[in-house]
Write a structure and sequence with these properties.
Length: 349
């Protein structure tokens, strides 16, 4: 079954054709990074406008790359929550128009759950073999741990109480005077063979003894103070970041990454205990699952606990529409389609 997926929840306009939920025939992602870079974060109104300008071309390109025609599509899946409401509305409207005009079913997909499907794309991993699972979505908007009974039956065990981990990476990059989005730049500098991840002892947040929540703002502030000193009266910082050498930036990035990754692994270990070690697998997704250090540490954790690890290919970690089409296929098979009244919604289901 050929499904067209559409994604527009934040700052990526994406479309993809996926066969039977797994085989990715095309995946087109038009990122808006250049539009938002000057603002140091995503500006919702600019995001909506850019989606509206790009959506038609992106969908056409996905059909062309897949080597098919609109008439070959058998359903339209769309990320309809959570996200920026104006941005979501562009994708949802496009999906409804296509569903109505082609006479094929429409299915709404939760973006965060779709991140957990991303690791199944282009694989033949059997669904029955991986559930129950411990799920983790780490992205620019989420740091959330889930207990998963199936791809659509998931329960939140814990989430961030302040910054999402990707947001903390982006702010760390800003503190160090690097570009936006910051995650890939911090990762690249930290991965330099000469970097020392113990150069600075940055805090690993634990919260309460049994807490499965995350907090990354303390880590971000500790990095800020390390770079600019502790602010004096009136909140004035004694230093700016212009004196940082490349070597120092590398070490700070590596130390930041070590602390971020340790916090994530710690909470996954706690969650496994809380679930009575019932999970058969660890399913990871979201933009930050592209991080080399986090991928390495989570792989070690999965091995030590004899858990199957479901980790996306690099291109399916960040926002994309293939994961939407993939989970859309599964949703159609197990739950069924939505009607044309499908609503865009800013929060998770
Ligand atoms: O999943 P995603 O594309 O969007 C959301 O749903 O939020 O994630 C984007 C986030 C950004 O914060 C970006 O800095 C981060 O993923 N990211 C990374 C890496 N690649 C992307 N963070 C750390 N290391 C990376 N290699
Ligand atoms: Zn995302």
């Amino acid at each position: 079954m050929l499904i067209l997926g559409i994604e527009s929840s934040c700052d990526e306009t994406a479309a993809s054709v996926v066969e039977d939920g797994r085989h990715v025939r095309s995946s087109v992602v038009a990122s808006q990074h250049e539009i938002h870079e000057a603002f140091g974060g995503v500006v919702p109104e600019l995001a909506s406008r850019a989606h509206a300008e790009r959506i038609t071309g992106v969908v056409q390109q996905a059909i062309k790359d897949a080597g098919c025609e609109f008439s070959d599509l058998e359903a339209i899946a769309v990320g309809h929550r959570p996200g920026l409401i104006g941005a979501l509305l562009v994708g949802v409207s496009a999906a409804k128009s296509l569903s109505w005009s082609l006479g094929v079913p429409l299915v709404g997909v939760d973006h965060v759950r779709a991140h957990l499907w991303a690791g199944l794309l282009n694989t033949d991993v059997g669904i029955d073999g991986i559930f129950p699972a411990l799920g983790l979505v780490i992205s620019g908007g989420h740091s959330t741990i889930f207990e998963c009974d199936s791809p659509t039956e998931i329960r939140k065990l814990g989430g961030t109480i302040d910054d999402a981990v990707g947001e903390a990476y982006d702010k760390a990059a800003a503190i160090l005077g690097l570009g936006h989005p910051g995650g890939p730049v911090v990762d690249k500098l930290a991965s330099d063979g000469a970097s020392d991840d113990r150069a600075v002892d940055l805090p690993v947040s634990r919260l309460g003894r049994e807490s499965l929540d995350f907090s990354f703002s303390g880590l971000k502030t500790a990095l800020l103070y390390e770079v600019r000193g502790v602010p004096g009266p009136g909140g004035v910082f004694p230093k700016d970041n212009t004196e940082l050498t490349v070597g120092r930036k590398r070490d700070l990035c590596a130390s930041f990454q070590r602390a971020a990754s340790r916090a994530i692994v710690l909470k996954l270990e706690r969650a496994l205990d809380a679930m009575g070690n019932k999970p058969k697998s660890l399913i990871i997704g979201g933009g930050v699952s592209a991080n080399s250090r986090i991928r390495r540490d989570i792989t070690e954790l999965a091995q030590s606990k004899s858990l199957q690890l479901v980790l996306p290919e690099m291109r399916f970690c960040v926002d994309n529409a293939a994961m939407i089409a993939g989970l859309g296929y599964h949703t159609l098979q197990t739950i069924g389609p939505d009607d044309l009244l499908l609503r865009a919604a800013p929060g998770m289901s």
